[in-house]
């Protein structure tokens, strides 16, 4: 892993430190006022270990759109994931890390012509489609592409539905599209689907895999020999979530519908890898008390407190508008014994729609206090804007000492990339990582040699 951005230096945690202790260290030193993130690389490594254990047959192709931080991409590339890209800019970002083109799937069913031409020029051959127009574009611009037909199979309950925009009907539309592709001489190699981002109905994967089997079988009648199944995204990644049930259904469905081990199975997890890795800290810069007067007695009471913080829906909290995320504010200080009262949280811009939390019980906080938001790694920073001149929060990268040792042993890093943080651990969050052990899974390291790339397998004991 190469940390190429000076703003993303990695801080090494000792065994007594954790994300929350780092947040306190940053918040209460050097007159810190701007909102900031802490990203835990170890959380990403643990997620990868979990994926490989739960879904051993499914190769993850990380959805770059979810969080395109170079640090995140470098770590995942080092761990051996592929990448799901949706544009030529995302393709270029991944290729700039010396990732091979065959580790990329261009998973956007409706692509601008210039992006198709670019994919052809850099050798990214796997691309998705769900309409006839795309087939004719590819025939003209990239006739040697390896196409993957995307079918629609929606979960009943998902954080963000995608079927209204992408995916052909597997029964009424897919056969006709495959016949057209065959007549055009286009190489279709498999089927993809996406049940919806943040899927909350694991059974949706069984329906989708069953539908994909039917499309495989029909394609064989046209002379196609499909060999790729793309399970798309939808895997939750926040604190308190689990992919265990989804993994159980996927594994059993693959055994039933795709027992042939020669079929390559991939997926496009995004939030699973990065959601819980990012924690956001925001500073209260203003407070407004909404006073209520009793019409009978004339007595006044503070009926509601409005807290104004230095990040909002035009910044990190765009995830509320576009990703339907439920935000949980947590005060950084310990307010034991404090009376909790109805409150709301507002962003810093002049837009009245810039509301982060509409109604929540919070203690009596002061200007300069901090509020922390966990699970802020997915679909936040890539969409954030500096509207009204308010900056996008800086990201502080942290890793446990044993993660640093793993990276130091395997990758060409120098100590200049890292800083030791000796932060006293406190009891507000019981998240000590001192018992963390190194993962036992192969890590694929890309080593340039002349014009080619050699790959070696490392197993961390």
TrEMBL record:
It holds the Pfam family Orn_Arg_deC_N. PROSITE patterns: ODR_DC_2_1. CDD domains: PLPDE_III_ODC (cd00622). Pathway: Amine and polyamine biosynthesis; putrescine biosynthesis via L-ornithine pathway; putrescine from L-ornithine: step 1/1. Keywords: Lyase, Polyamine biosynthesis, Pyridoxal phosphate. Residues 36-377 form the Orn/DAP/Arg decarboxylase 2 C-terminal domain. It catalyses: L-ornithine + H(+) = putrescine + CO2. It comes from the Eukaryota. The modification N6-(pyridoxal phosphate)lysine is found at residue 65. Its cofactor is pyridoxal 5'-phosphate. The active site is at 350 (proton donor). One of its GO terms (molecular function) is ornithine decarboxylase activity. Residues 42-274 form the Orn/DAP/Arg decarboxylase 2 N-terminal domain. One of its GO terms (cellular component) is cytoplasm. GO terms for biological process: putrescine biosynthetic process from arginine, via ornithine. Its EC number is 4.1.1.17. InterPro entries: Ala_racemase/Decarboxylase_C, De-COase2_C, De-COase2_N, De-COase2_pyr-phos_BS, Orn/DAP/Arg_de-COase, Orn_de-COase, PLP-binding_barrel. Belongs to the Orn/Lys/Arg decarboxylase class-II family. Catalyzes the first and rate-limiting step of polyamine biosynthesis that converts ornithine into putrescine, which is the precursor for the polyamines, spermidine and spermine. Polyamines are essential for cell proliferation and are implicated in cellular processes, ranging from DNA replication to apoptosis. Homodimer. Only the dimer is catalytically active, as the active sites are constructed of residues from both monomers. This is ornithine decarboxylase.
């Amino acid at each position: 892993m190469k940390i190429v951005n000076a703003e993303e230096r990695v801080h090494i945690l000792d065994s007594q430190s954790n994300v929350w202790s780092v947040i306190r260290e940053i918040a209460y030193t050097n007159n810190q006022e701007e909102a900031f993130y802490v990203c835990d690389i170890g959380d990403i490594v643990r997620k990868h270990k979990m994926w490989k254990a739960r879904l051993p047959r499914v190769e993850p192709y990380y959805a770059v759109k979810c969080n395109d931080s170079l640090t995140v991409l470098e770590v995942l590339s080092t761990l051996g994931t592929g990448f799901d890209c949706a544009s030529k800019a995302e393709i270029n970002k991944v290729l700039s890390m010396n990732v091979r083109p065959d580790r990329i799937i261009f998973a956007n069913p409706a692509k601008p012509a210039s992006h198709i031409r670019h994919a052809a020029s850099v050798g990214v051959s796997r691309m998705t489609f769900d309409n006839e127009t795309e087939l004719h574009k590819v025939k003209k611009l990239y006739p040697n592409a390896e196409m993957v037909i995307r079918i629609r199979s929606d979960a009943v309950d998902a954080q963000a539905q995608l079927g209204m925009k992408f995916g052909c009907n597997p029964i009424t539309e897919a056969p006709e599209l495959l016949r057209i592709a065959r007549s055009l001489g286009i190489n279709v190699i498999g089927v993809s689907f996406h049940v919806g981002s943040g899927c909350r109905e694991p059974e949706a994967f069984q329906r989708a895999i069953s539908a994909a089997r039917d499309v495989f079988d029909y394609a064989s009648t046209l002379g196609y020999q499909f060999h790729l199944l793309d399970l798309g995204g939808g895997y939750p990644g926040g604190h308190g979530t689990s992919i265990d049930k989804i993994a159980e259904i996927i594994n059993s469905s693959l055994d039933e519908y795709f027992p042939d081990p020669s079929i390559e199975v991939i997926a496009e997890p995004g939030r699973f890898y990065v959601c819980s890795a990012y924690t956001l800290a925001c500073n209260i810069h203003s407070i407004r008390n909404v006073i209520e007067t009793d019409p009978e007695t004339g007595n006044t009471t503070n009926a509601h407190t409005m807290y104004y913080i230095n990040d909002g829906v035009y910044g990190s909290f765009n995830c509320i508008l576009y990703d339907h995320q439920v935000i949980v504010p947590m005060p950084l200080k310990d307010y034991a014994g404090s009376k909790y009262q109805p409150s709301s949280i507002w962003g810093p811009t002049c837009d009245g729609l810039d509301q982060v939390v509409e109604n929540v019980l919070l203690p009596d906080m002061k200007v300069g206090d901090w509020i922390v938001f966990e699970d802020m790694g997915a679909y936040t920073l890539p969409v954030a804007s500096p509207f009204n001149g308010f900056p996008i929060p800086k990201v502080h990268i942290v890793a446990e000492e044993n993660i640093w040792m793993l990276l130091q042993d395997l990758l060409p890093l120098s100590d200049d990339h890292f800083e030791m943080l000796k932060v006293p651990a406190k009891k507000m969050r019981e998240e000590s990582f001192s018992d963390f052990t190194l993962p036992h899974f192969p890590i694929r390291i890309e080593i340039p040699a002349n014009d080619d790339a050699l790959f070696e397998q490392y197993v961390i004991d």
